[in-house]
Design a protein that fits this description.
mainly alpha; two-stranded antiparallel ribbon; 4 helices; Putative membrane protein YhdT
């Protein structure tokens, strides 16, 4: 490949160009921490519920809820429904709807939004 003297659009800025951090970066980083925390909490709750209710039981000791073993019923369908509600609240309360392209953000700023 030969060098044509032009920079690719995502190359590092030249030293004489000041770096300007996109304000959407901080919002995206905050939302990433919320999402990872949600995922960790969901994983811990599902695993702990299944282990605490069904761990170490013999087949004769199992009880059933709606045809499912109780450990499965409480750790999968119920936990998924509860965490779906939590995800809904997190998205509507803590996540920000923002444009992904730089052009749309500039237009929204000019419009005073």
């Amino acid at each position: 490949m030969t060098d044509t003297g032009t920079r690719p659009p995502f190359d590092e800025p030249a030293e004489d160009e000041p770096f300007e951090e996109d304000p959407r970066y901080r919002v995206a980083e905050r939302e990433m921490y919320i999402a990872v925390g949600y995922w960790v909490a969901f994983t811990v709750v599902v695993t702990a519920t299944a282990w605490l209710i069904g761990g170490g039981k013999k087949a004769e000791e199992l009880t059933f809820v709606l045809g499912f073993p109780d450990w499965f019923f409480w750790s999968v369908p119920v936990a998924c429904l509860v965490f779906s509600g939590i995800a809904y609240v997190l998205v509507h309360r803590y996540f920000t709807d923002m444009p992904l392209s730089a052009d749309e953000g500039a237009e929204a700023d000019r419009a005073g939004r």
